[in-house]
Fold:
Amino acid sequence: MEIFWILAFPLIGGLLLALFGCRSFAPELNTLMSFGTFVASALLTARVINDGPITALQGQFFVDSFNVFLVALTAFVAFTTALFSRPYMRIEQAHGKLTVKMLRLYHSMYQLFTFTMLLVLLTNNMGIMWVAMEAATLTTVLLVSLYRTPASLEASWKYFILCGVGLAQALFGTILLYFAAEKVLGAGGTALLWTHLDSVKTELEPTVLSLAFVFLLVGYGTKVGLAPLHSWLPDAHAEGPTPVSAVLSGLLLNVALYVVVRSKVLVDGALGTHFAGDLMMGFGLLSVVMAAFFLSRQKDVKRMFAYSSIEHMGLITFAFGMGGAVATFAGLLHMTVHSLTKSAIFFAVGHATQKSGTQLMENISGLIKTHPTIGWGLMIGTLAILGMPPFGVFASEFLIITTAMHAYPWTTPFLLIALGVAFAAIFGRVQKMVFGETSGKRLPHPPALLPVFVHLALVLLLGLYIPPYLADWYRQAAALIG
Amino acid sequence: MANLSGSFINLFAALLLLIAFAMLSQRRILSLINLFALQGLVLTASTAVVAWSSHQSHLYYSAALTLVLKVIILPWILHRLIRKLNVKWDVETLFNIPTTMLIGIALVVFAFNLAAPISQMAGTIVKSTLGIAMACVLLSFLMMITRSKAVPQVIGFLAMENGLFFAATSATYGMPMVVELGIALDVLVGMVILGIFFFQIRETFDSLDLKHMEKLKEE
Structure:
């Protein structure tokens, strides 16, 4: 029943906002619908914690401790982003960048985008996962091109073509998976259900599965933003509206990685080797190193943090690739804290760019003078994402690097150098933006900074103390993934 | 009878490959759309023959779905779009067609090699066509790379989806119905969104040439 409501709220919200999106209450309706989704997901979480994994609708939906935490995270960040976008989009409108019609499109697509992500997470059918993932691309294409500037059109065309081609590879991978599954499970609708595949994974044909995984990893990896398939990501983040950058970085990348990890479980079972893990480690490490060196060349603040997302997604992919209880635990924790921190940073960056009227970092300065909360929010968020103790990112990065030192010592220098370069690149620039003199004007509407500090407080909490039930939950999920 | 339907499917597979090459070298947008519709028609026919010879009744539905979506609706939307965008008689200058064709042949050889170990495991009567399906996917990919205008690039994208669909029918007698419906819905919605997108691009850049859209890159 909770599953139904989780999916019904954003879907109905999307349709309602398409109809009434021109009215003045549209932002409030958007927030209300996201809040409904969040409440439903909290109830689902409580039920899964108490009763264990559940399936619904003849096995078409499946929730275990791995996806329930992503469902809760997705619904929570989607809700706080809706809170943030209410004043943010009003200011954009007051600056004359958006019309009422564009806002209607924005609100409707925002809800439908949430719907597609939650569908990817909740469905048990690998085919429907693909369909929902493609639908997520389609809804965000229109969000990225919302401002209709030449740059935003170019960014979203690139996004559509690259992710479309990427997902075509993933579809081929899914076909191969079905091809292998059909031999064991028989033809028909149940052969693509993940739980069924999981129960027979040792009998699946290894050669077909390894080929399928290559296609799935390359396909969904495009969506995760793994190097060298990442080139859509900085453009889409920089040219789209800031709330969209926040949900792209904070949520969509996680959701795409979720599908990769689900596939990895099947392939590991069929092959009995570390083949899938090795591939993921390779792609992950390459992304971390490449992103770190691109970071120092950025001029646009949103582009810079987009590269930082590539770096962190690479790190998480690397952690899941290593496998084992500790690394997987760290990967899951890092997914959570990265999502919270990065969306908080984008909230602060969004208001900072509105105030300065530019996204170029050299023209932003002295945030702390006129709007101390924006300045502090950005500064604390940056410290958190760079892995400073006592924030949660430090805990997960520490676990990932110490595991890498034990299991794969040769990777340690790459990781440490990349993290160091990233620190130098980001910290120096943010310091100049936050402190110093300013001539910026005040904003026409009060900014929404509550979500920034709520997210950062949660990240701080996760760094200082992980509640026992949450730790259990991560451990269970880690045991599922292996 | 199985022999006869097997020959028919091989014939259709060969036709699909031929159409993929024709699309690669076709310069006129209007002819490109007609080729795409023809590809859909061949796909429908081959799916129907597979359905008939293997007694898989759900394949009749997917053949009907292909007919409606890829032979009627999508070409109709594309025809309407190019009329409204005034690009109906556009001729694209293509870079060195013979070289592109040679690369295409190399891709076909590669696809056959890649598909060989899998086709041996396929239990379907149409296993030899998996290589052709992969070749169609790769050729459409090549077409997307060589085109510099928005509409042909999208046709290449749709042709790639046709190749994947052919792979699914030839290797596994099609995907589960619910997944096929979902994919069809995605393709349709995607086409509508791209239609809106074409107008936005033309309004902003005064043309559908993608060479105007190369500003965003790392210096």
